[in-house]
Amino acid sequence: MDEKFHEQASQLELDRRSDALAQVRRTLSAQGQAHCEDCEERIPAKRRKAFPSAIRCIACQQIFERIYKK
Asked: What Pfam families does this protein map onto (predicted)?
């Protein structure tokens, strides 16, 4: 029983951490970022102003869309 309890407690902790990380990611995605998620260069203020939830610079966003939006 002790082993099963520890497994359940560990799984609960992993689930809570996963939920917390998902919430942080959703918040960041909604707010946008100062640096590109892919190349880590600063996202220009003009782009962030036009698209506040941007997580990529224009160049990386174009690449992303070519690859993943078929």
From this structure: zf-dskA_traR (PF01258)
